[in-house]
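[retry 2/3] AI-2E family transporter: previous attempt timed out, resubmitting with same input.
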Amino acid sequence: MPDAPSENIYTPRQQYVLLIVCLIGLAVLILVGLGSYITAFLGAGILYVVFRPWFQALVHRRGWNRQLVTAGLLTFAFVVIILPFTALTLMLVDRIRDYAQDTTQIMAVLHKIEQKTGYRFTTEQNVRGLVQQSVSWLSTRIPSLATGLLHFTVIIGLMLFTMYFMFTQEEGFLRGLRRYLPFRASTLRELGESLRNTVNANVLGQALIAFVQAVLTGLTLWIFGVPDALFWGTVAFFTAFIPVLGTPLVWGPAAILKLTQGHTGQGVGILLVGIILIINIDNLLRIVLARRMGNIHPLITLAGVVLGVEIFGILGLVLGPLLLSYFMVLMGVFERENRLHRRVRAEQLPAAGPAEEASPTN
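[retry 2/3] AI-2E family transporter: success.
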């Protein structure tokens, strides 16, 4: 007589727990395997949020062909955003590496400052080591073709393919998010609103502000005779994303350089234009754009940029503030849910009867 089939040794609860452990383990393995390409999926999500209003207006309202609209958006993203940003990044990285290999220009400026102040605080070895460490740090944070043509091509290809499926299968994509994310519908709406505000404030709004400040910085340096004004204007575009510090990191040292070289009028002119025009144009544009785009607190942006760049590289300019915004949203959700559970529990408790009332003490 054949043996009866053996029973499973796990209880239903153990099976449930082990299923969760297996899912988490597989998810960790997938993330580790895709670690060097995770920026492609994150970038696709950011661009999806940026282009989704256009997609909805053309496909859902005007009834245009979904595939043609998606192809047009991908082409626009590649030609207008990806290629120029890559060119700016390459120019910045290559120039920084040139300065790292030849520190004579940096040392000349520092020696002049030492002559003016009468205090020696640098040696060529220390400056070279500091510059090389800075280049090494930037190389890990700023993606470029220098990291490998194949790697760069795969990242761009993954990002474009991900965007293609997010748009062409938008309904299924959003339905999957609502189904598998462990949040209520109201929480998902809050998270979506936070994502939209963060992307608008730190991609669209900040990119526009950074572009205007970079143009003004480059023109100012060119007018007052600073060498490589185009390069330093490009650097100003990147530094404009840094809260509080921003473009003064570029035109401030340029003014100091002119003053140490004896060109007092040019140095003072750069300072006046930087303080009066470039800084104030930032404040003016922020006030105007805050009414139309996400209004993110500067402290969240500052802490988020520091956190995000360290973890995600240059995409951390957006993902860092987004992480902090999500943390604050989830904290508010937790507080609201906790308050609701306490109220429900209090209503479910039986009312104290007369016999349970405390009698006066003798």
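[retry 2/3] AI-2E family transporter: The chain has two domains: 37-180, 182-346.
[retry 2/3] clearing retry counter.
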